[in-house]
Sequence to fold (294 residues):
Amino acid sequence: MDQLAPLYSGTEKDRFFHFGESRRLLSDADMLTIMQRMLSTIDITKLADIALTLLGERLTVTGLEIHAPDQGYATGLAGVYHRQLEAPQQLDPRICVTYRFARKPSAHEERLLHEMHDCIVTPLAHAMAHARLANMATKDHLTGLGNRASFDEALQRLISHANRSGSRFGLVVIDMDKFKLINDQYGHQEGDKVLISVARAINDCLRDTDFAFRFGGDEFCCLIEDADAKALLCIGQRIRRAMNSYPVLRQYNASCSIGVSLYRQGDTSESLFERADLALYQLKEANYQGVESA
Fold:
């Protein structure tokens, strides 16, 4: 990949654009238009598309990638030529943007790219920061799965969609067996390792279209789209088997009980969850580890 050196160096701290500079290729009106369009949304996916459209109006840019230490977004098509430019050091998060070109840009186009980069990079960094905060609000900090709030939102969305379209989906509720003993005997740090491994085992068993959540404590939930009763039971059994493949879970002989329920027309989030939860606790009361459908 052919790349330029970073646009901003440690000695060039003030590389923001300034109106009225005669050396610039972009007019003041151009820069104002770009700024207005880049300030129209804080959603990073929408803003990246806007940035690509603005670039495509003036350059042969086919796509772009936005990189931060713990995030990344891409839009557009692959290119045959790449340019990577960094943001000013004072921006948080520090991002860099890779621009993909249909052909090698001329010196004039490279200069124009730098000017446009100056205009779009700050809104992109702010949108990345907003996305990071939004992600933190919906993720469980320990396991990285969705949290209770994101579960409630996703479940309600699936119910609304099922009521409109007649689509089918299912709920899988997973509860660890005797997890409290692990915490009591080996400490909460080891208990956390077990929960992290359980989350990974669950993720290993799901498709890209399925969703996993830490419901609370040692209880997890999965929402399975386009499912039937047989598929839900198969996924539950797969999760139980997958747990045996993790050394930490084998070390503590960790196991789980699983209840599943398929959405029925007219179900509320409460009635759907209650059926799966009832099936799970019937297993617990019978002292039987497995998967039960309701």
User: Anything to note?
Assistant: The chain has two domains: 28-137, 148-293. Confidence is low (pLDDT under 50) at residues 1-15. The beta strands are 61-68, 71-76, 81-86, 96-101, 169-176, 211-216, 219-225, 256-262, 291-293.
